[in-house]
Structures are given as structure tokens and as C-alpha cells.
């Protein structure tokens, strides 16, 4: 590298026309700079030569500083001191900020380009800006950019349309995303994947699997990203047969048990209550992170396998993996199903030791554990000391415990709060009535039933779902 520098210094004449070979040399040097110090030396040399006027090299310098984690101030400073800027330059700086922790700056740069320069956006610019809107949660601004895309004639661009589908999906507007998707005469794999991911994340597995069949019929080959969405949908619906088909597809394509895919397969088997398969996949994974461990702990915790859940937790700590909020939710769930109220209290106190802030779901698990153990007064006291308002699920756990342990006093107080929160919910009336009936207070039980009839509140019949036919296309078995 030093030899190449000496050659450039000896051959470069600042007053001579720009040599194409020298441009290529400098571009290569900027592209392969090992650190920021090396890059700054190159930057200084470019400033002393006419090569800095070359928009390609100076733009590449902007990108190189960003890749060295110096987006601010170096990349931004270089960009605004460039002798000339084109859409290639603007796309680089907007894209780097769009992918950074400062997506709002990407939007500001786009608006600066639009208002203060003659450079107009292309179909690579809008996906970057829409991504920044998603990261910033700016729904109205994103819709405005959609309108601008239509005004400038970019509505048929695959890049822009895929970005808009992604944008609508992330804002929870699945219907709008599908309308946009259906309106495209051509669709690439990115657009299909974005739409499938939207159905998976917003719990629409039936629509997602129907879209997958359309994708196969259109001749688009699925990849491991599509498999992630399918695994999520199979787990949500408990479709074990379909999940096995997807797992088999991954094995036949020799994708291996990489982290994301392995975690998705483990999660699918856990949600389908097949813990043996989940363990088997977990053990074959080349790499495991906190998500891998936490999913397995939560699965065993929800199934009531306390011993295995705590063994996994201890092994996780021994391997140096720091637990997160899901890990502790799994441990508390295990304690709840095992009736281990004291152990749950110790685990709850341990949450802060690992830098995790207890959330409402952790308080709910703790209350559920106390209620199942019959410690109803303690559970009520715990709820009163919570830093946030309890929701219906937390209070409902106490009321369910009152029904099991026939505690009328606490049951009346909790039922009154629940009926105040959700007066149309029939389950609270039924539980309170059953508590009265179990303790021989039949008159009070009948009064509750009369209140239900007066408010026209009736119990909805329960229902179950079973897996009866295979939805996946035969291509998933190839």
C-alpha cells in the first residue's frame, strides 16, 4: 500500500488533465482503506489535487467514512464540501442516514435536495426515504411521499413499489399493502417476500399461505426469508404438518441451522407443543443466542416443565448469555405452572440484576403464580404496588384464583374492578357467580345472573380448531 502511495505522489501532476488510471487507483484505495486514519490521509491528498472534483471519488469517500462509523461529522462534512453533487451522491448520504440511528436526518437531506438543488430523485432514492419514514414512525409523511412517487411517475417501479409495500406492512396497513401489491403488473421476489412477511407478522396465516401458493404458481422460487415467514405462520396457527414440510424444505436445500432460521424452526415446534423436536433442532444449531435459549425456556415454562426450564436457564448463564425479558417471562411461567411462589419471587427480584426492566407481562406472570398458589391477598397487595395500572388479564388471573380457592372477599373486590373495566365481558360475571355458588351463597349467585340478563350479557360458546388439510404447495416438498 505504501509503495502505491509513493507511485501516486511521484506521477501525479496537479496541473495535468485527470488520468483515468489515477482515478481508478484512488477509487481502489478509498474502497479498501483499513481505518479512518488511512482514509484521512487519502482525503487530504485528494483535496490537494484535482481528483477531489471527481464526483465518483468524492462520493465514494463519503461512503467510506460512513463504513468506518464516522457518518457524523466526516461523511456529512465531506458531502457538503463536495465541488459537485449528483443523484448518486445524494443517494449515498441519504441511504447511510436511513440505515443509521438518525433516520430523520435522511428525510431532512431529501427535503434539502428537493428544495435547494436541481437534482431530482430517482427510483433508488424513494426506497431509502420510505425506509427512514418507517424507522421514524412517520405515517403521514410516508403517505405524502407515496403521493410524490405517483406524481413523478414512479408507481410502476419495482424498487419503489416494493418499498411502499414494506412501508404499509410495517405501519400495520395490510389491506393497503395488498391493494398496492395487486396493482403491480410485475412483481419481484422482494415484493412477494415483503407481503408474506406482513401477513406473518400481523397474524394472518390463512391469507399468507394463500399468497404463498400464488407465489409458487407465478414461478417465483422461495428462499430462506420466505421460509421464516411460513414458519411464523405455521407456529401461529399450530399447523405442525405444514411446519414440518417447511423444515424438510430447509434440510433438503442444505440451508443448515443458521441462527435466524434455526430460531424460527425452534419457535414453530414450541408453538405446536412438540418440545422434543424443538430440542433436537436447538442442539444441532451452529450458533445460539439469547433468542434461542429464551424461546426454549419459555416453551418449557408454558408447558409446566419447571425442572427443564431452570436447567436451561442455568446452562444459558454458564455459557455467558445474558438473559432478556423473554427469558424471565419463561422462568416466571414455569414457576406459575409449578406452583413455586417463593421461587417466582426470587426470580422476579433477579430481573433487575441483569439490567432488565420488568414489564406488564412479568407482573402478570407473578400475579398468576401467586393466585394459583392460593396467595390471593398477597397477589392483590402485589397488584396495588405495581408501578403501572393493572390490565384485565392481571386482575382476571386473581379472579380465576379466587374461583379455584373459593375466596369470596377478594373475588368481590376484583370482580367489581373488572366489570368496571369491561362491563360487556361475560366471563367475569360467570366467575363471580360460580364463586358464590361454590361457597353456598346461591342468592348472590342468582343476583349476578340476573344482572347478566338485564345487561343482555351472555356466555359465548367455546370452540376448537384442528388441522385437517395441507395448505402448502407441493413445491415446498421439492
TrEMBL record:
Keyword Lipoprotein on entry: no
Start and stop residues of the PPR repeats: 86-121, 188-222, 289-323
Domain of life assignment: Eukaryota
Xref: InterPro entries: E_motif (IPR046848), PPR_At4g14850-like_plant (IPR046960), PPR_rpt (IPR002885), TPR-like_helical_dom_sf (IPR011990)
MF term (GO), any: RNA binding
GO biological process, one term: RNA modification
Keyword Disulfide bond among UniProt keywords: no
Keywords per UniProt: Repeat
Family annotation (PANTHER family): OS07G0636900 PROTEIN, PENTATRICOPEPTIDE REPEAT-CONTAINING PROTEIN
Stated name of the protein: Pentatricopeptide repeat-containing protein
Amino acid at each position: 500500500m505504501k509503495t502505491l502511495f509513493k507511485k501516486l505522489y511521484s506521477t501525479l501532476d496537479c496541473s495535468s488533465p485527470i488520468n483515468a488510471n489515477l482515478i481508478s487507483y484512488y477509487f481502489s484505495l478509498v474502497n479498501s482503506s483499513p481505518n479512518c486514519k488511512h482514509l484521512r490521509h487519502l482525503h487530504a491528498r485528494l483535496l490537494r489535487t484535482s481528483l477531489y472534483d471527481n464526483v465518483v471519488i468524492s462520493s465514494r469517500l463519503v461512503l467510506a467514512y460512513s463504513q468506518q462509523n464516522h457518518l457524523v461529522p466526516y461523511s456529512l462534512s465531506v458531502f457538503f464540501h463536495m465541488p459537485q453533487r449528483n443523484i448518486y451522491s445524494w443517494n449515498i448520504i441519504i441511504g447511510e442516514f436511513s440505515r443509521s440511528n438518525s433516520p430523520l436526518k435522511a428525510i431532512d437531506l431529501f427535503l434539502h435536495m428537493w428544495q435547494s438543488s436541481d437534482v431530482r430523485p430517482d427510483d433508488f432514492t424513494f426506497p431509502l426515504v420510505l425506509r427512514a419514514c418507517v424507522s421514524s414512525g412517520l405515517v403521514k409523511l410516508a403517505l405524502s411521499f407515496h403521493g410524490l412517487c405517483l406524481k413523478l411517475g414512479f408507481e410502476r417501479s419495482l424498487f419503489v413499489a416494493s418499498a411502499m409495500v414494506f412501508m404499509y406492512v410495517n405501519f400495520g396497513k395490510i389491506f393497503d399493502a395488498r391493494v398496492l401489491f395487486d396493482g403491480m403488473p410485475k412483481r419481484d421476489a422482494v415484493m412477494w417476500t415483503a407481503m408474506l412477511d406482513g401477513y406473518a407478522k400481523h397474524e394472518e396465516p390463512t391469507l399468507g399461505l394463500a399468497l404463498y401458493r400464488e407465489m409458487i404458481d407465478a414461478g417465483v422460487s422461495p428462499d430462506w426469508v420466505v421460509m421464516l415467514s411460513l414458519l411464523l405462520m405455521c407456529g401461529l396457527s399450530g399447523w405442525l404438518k405444514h411446519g414440518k414440510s417447511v423444515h424438510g424444505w430447509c434440510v433438503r436445500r442444505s440451508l443448515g441451522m443458521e441462527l435466524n432460521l434455526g430460531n424460527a424452526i425452534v419457535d414453530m415446534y414450541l408453538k405446536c407443543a412438540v418440545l422434543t423436536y424443538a430440542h433436537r433442532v436447538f442442539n444441532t444449531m451452529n450458533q445460539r443466542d439469547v433468542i434461542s435459549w429464551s424461546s426454549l425456556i419459555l416453551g418449557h415454562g408454558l408447558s409446566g416443565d419447571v425442572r427443564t426450564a431452570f436447567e436451561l436457564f442455568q446452562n444459558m448463564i454458564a455459557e455467558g448469555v445474558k438473559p432478556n425479558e423473554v427469558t424471565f417471562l419463561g422462568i416466571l411461567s414455569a414457576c406459575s405452572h409449578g406452583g413455586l411462589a417463593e421461587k417466582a419471587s426470587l426470580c422476579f427480584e433477579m430481573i433487575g440484576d441483569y439490567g432488565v426492566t420488568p414489564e406488564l407481562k412479568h407482573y402478570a406472570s407473578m400475579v398468576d403464580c401467586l393466585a394459583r398458589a392460593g396467595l390471593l391477598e398477597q397477589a392483590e397487595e402485589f397488584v396495588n404496588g405495581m408501578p403501572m395500572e393493572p390490565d384485565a388479564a392481571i386482575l382476571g388471573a386473581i379472579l380465576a384464583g379466587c374461583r379455584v380457592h373459593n375466596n369470596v372477599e377478594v373475588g368481590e373486590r376484583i370482580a367489581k374492578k373488572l366489570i368496571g373495566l369491561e362491563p360487556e365481558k361475560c366471563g367475569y360475571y360467570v366467575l363471580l357467580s360460580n364463586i358464590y355458588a361454590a361457597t353456598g351463597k346461591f342468592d348472590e349467585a342468582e343476583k349476578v345472573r340476573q344482572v347478566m340478563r338485564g345487561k343482555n350479557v351472555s356466555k359465548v360458546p367455546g370452540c376448537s380448531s384442528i388441522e385437517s388439510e395441507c395448505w402448502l404447495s407441493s413445491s415446498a416438498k421439492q
